[in-house]
Amino acid sequence: MVDESVSDRVTVYEVGLRDGLQNEAAFVPTKHKMKLVEMLVDAGLRRLELTSFVSPRWIPQLADHATVASEAERRPGVRYSALVPNHRGLQGALSAGLEEIAVFLSATEAHSKKNINKTVEEALKVLTEVIVTAKGEGLFVRGYVSTVFGCPYEGTVDPAQPHRLVHALLDAGVDEISLGDTIGVANPRQVRDFMNRIKGDVPLDRIALHLHDTRGTALANVLAGLDAGVRTFDSAFGGLGGCPYAPGASGNLATEDLVYMLEGMGFETGIDLDRLVATSQYVSDLVSRTLPSKVLQSELGRRRKEEERAKRANGQPRSSGA
Ligand code: HMG
Ligand code: MG
To answer: What is the pLDDT of residues 115-132, one digit of tens each?
Structure first.
């Protein structure tokens, strides 16, 4: 059961602007990204990953990274971050005035090569230097380890490999580690076993879980994380997202679904579900399709029925398809 001795406060780390939009077929215009930053903060999100300072050849959807990161509205008490793969990315983040960055590594060689064109050791070498420089500049540094629970190219992952990388990143100076179920294959037993494996030598208050919901197991995995004492979870508005270099990776855990479950269980997130739903609806209109979030779909269905009822009460005809 959930450990009652650990805080009831849960931090939701919003990755929709980055992990969500990086996987969209179409480029979302910069002005809408700016609007989304405002809407997310109004909804109560206090940690946002705004974009990625990666190559626009590799991720064209986030080619406007410099504008988004430098011009997005800043509010006190909100932490804005961006993904950084190398020194050039760090310089971009610093020039944009960010006080936080996220570096990323894969637990598997095949995903590492496909995603950043480097072996795991090559990536670790570059990132160690980036982390040291970033800490010297006073930045908060998050380190992602991807493919912790399964790899699209190599299949099963030996937990010794992500465990080793968690230590390597902590030794290099990261403040927080986010464990990625990049292609949404994890199950709660795997999450529990990995937490049991690392908890003796890694402080779990520095661990976040980054769960994709490809196979519908993300919320069950959140519960396993909560039971272990994890209190930071990554999610994306509407359940958008995926890594373009991890075939089969679909949506991140939807922020609405996460917040609905956490608040229902008595955890405090500080997030207003109605505003969050409005934000995801805005995104759904932008990308012209229904988003996977269950809570969003249920809420929109409820609203449609209410509108129909109101129309009928006013003597208006029923709209088709209702
Ligand atoms: P490369 O081709 O090996 O490196 O790419 P390069 O040094 O030869 O650079 C190639 C081009 O990129 C050059 O430009 C560089 O100047 C430019 P060109 O000469 O072709 O015009 N470049 C950059 N441009 C902007 N910002 C930079 C930068 N660095 C080089 N920082 C590289 C290596 C890392 C750049 C490339 O592989 C890349 O950008 N990869 C990004 C892949 C990516 O963003 N994947 C998705 C994010 S990871 C993820 O989703 C998982 C996560 O969500 C957790 C989980 O789910 O598990 C985090
Ligand atoms: Mg991801």
So the answer is: 999 999 999 999 999 999
